[in-house]
């Protein structure tokens, strides 16, 4: 007899299975052992936690929104880009999934080391080029025989989009993105070793009536220096910003040097359109304010002071009598 002690759950399951004749006690033990063992692929080691992958996803969700605005303005057509999924896989597996002929922008983002890849589906890439050249944005796949002019236009288009990438990363780290290379054959591109873990952000892209994918491949070595910042604690922590004395002094000076409009209203009147159209030189319009009543003085279009008209050094002037505090309604004419 075995000296093993079964748990209460095992005992209940065993009694239930035996009473129904579904299995014997030995069959039950074998089934339990089978569920306890899980296969682990060391080539697919997960080097990022789910929390860290979510943080990277948030960055590129912002990037997708910025790209949507940028490409809509550049291409003057309907553009919609959104994050579809995020996963971490070996670089070798990612390269195998890339089409033979596609557009792969190799991007450096100093001060972070390494290079990342922005892969644009050929149909989407050519649709963008077609729009830049004045076409309707038809998504033909002719990436393998692009002319030098088309390649230059495409490079310029994506190079200017790096400003959006810089803005998307600004909340995490200040980067200076640089488009270092454009490749159309993935077999000629090796940014990291085949077994290196990479984060792949897949985005759905719609340009006019053309749909495709934009994939971002980020190696682990590039994100390694900022991994502590990718935790939820970092995103949720609110650091209180302390204003330096010199910053406060500079802000005060800037406010003092600001130019605002100031207007003194003599009063107002309501007339019909017929009377307005028949106004002629010498006509008199009666205002709703008495001649000896104080005037309403507005700054930036909002009532701020009460004053009286007069002269100073032979020039028309207004003397301030009182200040209208926030919420006062009696002078809201």
Report what the structure shows.
The strands form two sheets. The protein has a six-stranded antiparallel beta sheet. A four-stranded antiparallel beta sheet has the order 7-8-9-10, with no helix packed on it. The chain is built from eleven helices and ten strands. Helix 3 (50-75) runs antiparallel to helix 7 (162-169). The model has no long low-confidence stretch (mean pLDDT 80). It is α+β, with helices and mostly antiparallel strands and 333 residues long. 21% of the residues are buried. It folds into three domains: 14-39, no CATH class; 50-236, CheC-like (Chemotaxis protein chec, 3-Layer(aba) Sandwich); 260-323, SpoA-like (Surface presentation of antigens (SPOA), Roll). It is 35% helix and 24% strand. It starts with 7 loop residues before the first helix and ends in a 10-residue tail after the last strand. The longest helix is centred in the N-terminal third of the chain and has 26 residues, at 50-75. It has helices at 8-20, 25-36, 50-75, 91-97, 122-132, 148-160, 162-169, 220-223, 232-236, 245-256, 273-277, and strands spanning 79-90, 103-108, 115-120, 178-183, 197-207, 210-219, 262-265, 295-299, 302-312, 315-323. Residues 254-324 form the Flagellar motor switch protein FliN-like C-terminal domain. This is Flagellar motor switch protein FliM. It is found in: Bacterial flagellum basal body; Cell membrane.
């Amino acid at each position: 007899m075995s000296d093993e002690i079964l748990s209460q759950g095992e005992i209940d399951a065993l009694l239930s299975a035996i009473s129904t004749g579904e299995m014997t006690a030995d069959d039950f033990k074998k089934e339990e052992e089978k569920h306890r063992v899980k296969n682990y692929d060391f080539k697919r080691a997960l080097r990022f936690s789910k929390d860290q992958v979510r943080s990277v996803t948030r960055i590129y969700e912002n990037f997708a929104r910025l790209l949507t605005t940028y490409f809509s303005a550049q291409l003057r057509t309907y553009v919609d880009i959104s994050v579809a999924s995020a996963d971490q896989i070996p670089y070798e597996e990612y390269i195998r999934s890339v089409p033979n002929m596609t557009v792969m922008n190799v991007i450096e983002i100093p001060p972070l080391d390494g290079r990342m890849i922005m892969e644009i589906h050929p149909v989407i890439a050519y649709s963008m080029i077609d729009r830049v050249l004045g076409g309707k944005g038809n998504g033909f796949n002719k990436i393998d025989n692009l002319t030098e002019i088309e390649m230059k236009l495409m490079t310029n288009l994506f190079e200017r989009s790096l400003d959006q990438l810089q803005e998307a990363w600004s909340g995490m780290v200040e980067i200076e993105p640089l488009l270092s290379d454009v490749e159309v054959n993935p077999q000629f591109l090796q940014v990291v070793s085949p077994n290196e873990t990479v984060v792949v952000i897949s985005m759905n892209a719609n340009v006019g009536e053309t749909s495709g994918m934009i994939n971002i491949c980020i190696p682990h070595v590039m994100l390694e220096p900022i991994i502590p910042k990718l935790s939820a604690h970092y995103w949720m922590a609110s650091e209180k910003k302390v204003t330096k004395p010199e910053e406060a002094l500079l802000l005060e000076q800037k406010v003092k040097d600001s130019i605002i409009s100031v207007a003194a209203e003599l009063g107002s009147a309501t007339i019909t359109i017929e009377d307005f159209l028949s106004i002629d030189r010498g006509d008199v319009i009666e205002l709703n304010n008495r001649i000896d009543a104080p005037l309403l003085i507005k700054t930036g279009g909002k009532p701020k002071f009460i004053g009286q008209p007069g002269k100073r050094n032979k020039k028309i002037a207004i003397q301030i009598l009182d200040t209208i505090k926030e919420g006062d309604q009696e002078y809201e004419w």
